[in-house]
């Protein structure tokens, strides 16, 4: 059986992901020319590599089109319903750290916690004639965090495809749920993270699609062992 590993073809995770595999003795060579989106692994004839974007990798792991992938935990948990049933995080790779957070305008001086935000959400319609609007591209994580974990039901998600931190200033939403690493984009947009507003601490992960055919497959186990051995 051929085992397919999906690696980031571009973006912030590409170089670190390749470096981990190199250290693990998994040397990837492009099939065809350097711009090819397929690769092979020297000495592992039953392994092939697909180069995809980080979010495509999450999707392909979810539908089982690839066996392994390197992508951010945020993209796995946002992209896949019941992620733990469909994939297994084999290793956390120690790069690509970023937190998915709830951030509100700094001038909301009396809002520091999710409980405070819950109070704001309850009063919002009476005060403003509409529900509290949250800009995010993480609608699954946001719904789970607000509704299931914090019991906040009165809000509306405004889907954001980019520049989410600008939404409160432009008036398209009141608060945001987005990724942050250094915090500088939030500060530049006069937003603050709530003290208990970390939805997920994400990093790059080595992830396996749960497939029955993997049971007792020597190559599957050898790949997991090789990656874990260099962490
Ligand atoms: N400062 C950051 N901003 C955004 N994402 C970050 C940051 N630091 C780490 N990441 C992580 O990087 C991953 C996204 O990587 P990247 O932006 O390279 O994806 P991409 O290849 O652009 O995907 P796509 O084009 O499909 O959106 C996410 O898992 C995210 O958590
Ligand atoms: O906390 P910080 O260090 O400021 O990083 C967070 C920002 O970085 C990312 O945007 P980026 O400009 O990389 O563009 P992208 O969303 O297209 O990846 C992300 O979407 C945040 O806006």
Automatic annotation (TrEMBL):
Enzyme Commission number(s) from the entry: 2.4.2.17
Enzyme class: transferase
ATP phosphoribosyltransferase catalytic domain: residues covered: 54-228
GO process annotations (BP): L-histidine biosynthetic process
Keywords for this protein: Amino-acid biosynthesis, Glycosyltransferase, Histidine biosynthesis, Transferase
GO molecular function: ATP phosphoribosyltransferase activity
UniProt cross-references to InterPro entries, sorted A to Z: ATP_PRibTrfase_cat, ATP_PRibTrfase_CS, ATP_PRibTrfase_HisG
UniProt-listed Pfam families: HisG
Keyword Iron part of the UniProt annotation: no
Catalyzed chemical reaction(s): 1-(5-phospho-beta-D-ribosyl)-ATP + diphosphate = 5-phospho-alpha-D-ribose 1-diphosphate + ATP
UniProt GO cellular component terms: cytoplasm
Pathway noted in the entry: Amino-acid biosynthesis; L-histidine biosynthesis; L-histidine from 5-phospho-alpha-D-ribose 1-diphosphate: step 1/9
Chain's role: Catalyzes the condensation of ATP and 5-phosphoribose 1-diphosphate to form N'-(5'-phosphoribosyl)-ATP (PR-ATP). Has a crucial role in the pathway because the rate of histidine biosynthesis seems to be controlled primarily by regulation of HisG enzymatic activity.
Cross-referenced NCBIfam families: hisG
Family of this protein: Belongs to the ATP phosphoribosyltransferase family. Short subfamily.
Protein name (database record): ATP phosphoribosyltransferase
Organism, as annotated: Rhizobium mesoamericanum STM3625
Lineage of source species: Bacteria, Pseudomonadati, Pseudomonadota, Alphaproteobacteria, Hyphomicrobiales
């Amino acid at each position: 059986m051929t085992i397919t590993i999906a690696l980031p073809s571009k973006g912030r995770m590409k170089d670190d992901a390749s470096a981990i595999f190199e250290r693990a003795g998994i040397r990837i060579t492009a099939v065809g020319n350097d711009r090819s989106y397929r690769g092979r692994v020297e000495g592992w004839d039953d392994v092939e590599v697909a180069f995809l974007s980080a979010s495509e990798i999450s999707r392909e792991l979810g539908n089982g089109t690839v066996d392994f992938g390197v992508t951010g935990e945020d993209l796995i948990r946002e992209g896949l319903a019941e992620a733990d049933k469909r994939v297994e995080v084999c290793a956390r790779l120690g790069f690509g750290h970023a937190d998915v957070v709830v951030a509100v305008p700094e001038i909301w001086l009396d809002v520091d916690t999710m409980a405070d935000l819950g109070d704001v959400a309850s009063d919002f319609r009476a005060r403003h004639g509409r529900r509290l609007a949250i800009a995010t591209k993480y609608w699954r994580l946001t719904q789970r965090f607000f509704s299931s974990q914090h019991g906040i039901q009165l809000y509306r998600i405004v889907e954001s495809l980019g520049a989410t931190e600008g939404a409160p200033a432009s008036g398209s939403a009141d608060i945001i749920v987005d990724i942050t690493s250094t915090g500088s984009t939030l500060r530049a947009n006069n937003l603050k993270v709530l003290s208990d507003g970390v939805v997920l601490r994400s990093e790059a992960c080595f992830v396996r699609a749960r497939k029955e055919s993997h049971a007792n497959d020597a190559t599957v186990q050898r790949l997991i062992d090789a990656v874990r051995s260099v962490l």
